[in-house]
Amino acid sequence: MTTPETPQPLQFGWEEWVALPELGVPALKAKVDTGARTSALHAFDIETFGPASKPKVRFTVHPIPGRDDLVIPCSATIIDRRDVTSSNGERELRYVISSNLTVGEDSWPIEITLTNRSTMASRMLLGRQALKDHISIVATDRFLQPELSYDVYHTARMRNEQPKRALRIAVLSREDNYSTRRLVSEGEARGHTVEVINTTRCYMAINAMAPEVHYDGKRLPRFDAVVPRIGASITPYGTAIIRQFETIGTYCVNSSAGITSSRDKLYAHQLMARAKIGMPNTAFAASPHDTSNLMGLVGTAPLIVKLLESTQGKGVVLAETKKAAESVIDAFRGLKANFLVQDFVKEAAGEDIRCLVIGGKVVGAMKRTGAEGDFRSNLHRGGSAKAVRITKIERDTAIRAAKVFDLNMAGVDLLRSEAGPKVLEVNSSPGFEGIEGSTGKDIVGALYDLIESRVRPAPVRRRKSSKTAEE
């Protein structure tokens, strides 16, 4: 029969270096106070989230005094809410969480209350509940245990060692479709809280000191990440909402600038041409006197005439003869509509390839074939899809096209031509149903892998004058 090992006695001074690895805080100075019952951690932006049956709390920590530019977001399950009386006699109702405390090679769970300690010299207070029986206090000394260093916050190690935590994520969407439901179900399966926000019901408080996004009469909480699913019809307002989230400092999967530039078909083609990305010959003109020259720049019939505001194949016309092309162009001009004229890639035979790019990688590809008699391959118009193996040049082209618009999530549509892959369009709000159904891949899971890696705090630069403040 074995007996449990007796813990080695430890001596603590009145101040010690500690770590809270489960919260992503690798180095912290804590004041030891046997007069206090419960430990306390300096926290701000404290907000509850998650289901009422298992509520969580989200908060952020400034581990280095005087360095408010270093922000570590944390989340934990709430185990209690407790009245605490501080040393100056003030009572406060605080959230209580549990987390492992690490000192040297020892680690044990403790209860921690969350409060604003900005006026205190120490970012953390260790109460007597956190001090195990084998710990003795030497009140006249400090740092009797192995010393840590704030240097860790200036290296990539801080980001790499961040634990997985429950995130609060907003999906900006007006539709209850497959993509929105998948984003919610996958996020909740990973322990995150995912809230669907109707973009057009958001409004903004625009000011320098406290920019905010409001929704249904209330200020929206601070989200860890935002997944934009902005419809083409509300692009200007939707991107304005995303810009507001960017101003607040929320991680947005796709930036407002990337969405705006990808939605402007003329500008998008100019950007891709500048980056030397293959695409069908394209021309644009405003004057009706330039119709013949415009068509000549692209090539001979058949030609594609495409409205700049077209989506899901709407407003895209195949003109099989020169006369038909002139008629379509005249009709569009009569409507005062802006349009492009493009070469028709005959060898594509009504098929295109949708590559789903997430975080600079192609995570899935499908070949889309148009319905009988339709040159457009959009699934919304009755087309079909199946998984396809793409070539290295097709993969590289898709990745480069997404990078041109700085999109972390993009559906890149390619045509297979005799001259190599041609990019038709880069979609900043690609649907997930077709590509997950045809490839069998967990595309939304790959998106959450990206979000979980990107919301980790980045190292901060050392300050030349920070030596005294950080020691």
Describe the main β-sheet briefly.
7 strands, mixed
Low-confidence stretches: none
- State the distance separating the first and last CA atoms: 48 Å
Number of strands: 28
Question: Looking at the structure, what is the overall shape?
Answer: elongated
- Give the averaged pLDDT, no decimals: 86
Domain count: the total is 4
Share in helix: 10-25%
DSSP summary: helix tally:
11
Highest-level CATH class of the largest domain: Mainly Beta
User: What is the CATH architecture descriptor of the largest domain?
Assistant: Beta Barrel
Estimated structural class: alpha+beta
What fold name stands as the CATH topology of the largest domain?
Answer: Cathepsin D, subunit A, domain 1
Radius of gyration: 29 Å
Q: Would you identify the CATH H-level superfamily of the largest domain? A: Acid Proteases
The side-by-side strand order for the widest beta sheet comes to 2-3-11-4-10-9-8
Percentage of residues in strands: 25-35%
InterPro entries: Asp_endopeptidase (IPR008503), ATP-grasp (IPR011761), ATP-grasp_RimK-type (IPR013651), ATP_grasp_subdomain_1 (IPR013815), Peptidase_aspartic_dom_sf (IPR021109), Rimk_N (IPR041107), Rp_bS6_RimK/Lys_biosynth_LsyX (IPR004666)
Organism: Roseovarius marisflavi
Pfam family, one: Zn_protease
Protein name: Probable alpha-L-glutamate ligase
Description:
The protein is of the alpha+beta class. The chain has four domains: 10-161, Acid Proteases (Cathepsin D, subunit A, domain 1); 168-262, Rossmann fold (3-Layer(aba) Sandwich); 281-344, 2-Layer Sandwich (Dna Ligase, domain 1); 347-441, D-amino Acid Aminotransferase, Chain A, domain 1. 22% of the residues lie in helices and 33% in strands. A seven-stranded mixed sheet has the order 2-3-11-4-10-9-8, with no helix packed on it. A hairpin with a 6-residue loop joins strand 15 and strand 16. The longest helix has 14 residues, at 235-248. The chain is elongated, with a radius of gyration of 29 Å. The mean pLDDT is 86. Residues 269-452 form the ATP-grasp domain. Its cofactor is Mn(2+); Mg(2+). In the C-terminal section; belongs to the RimK family.
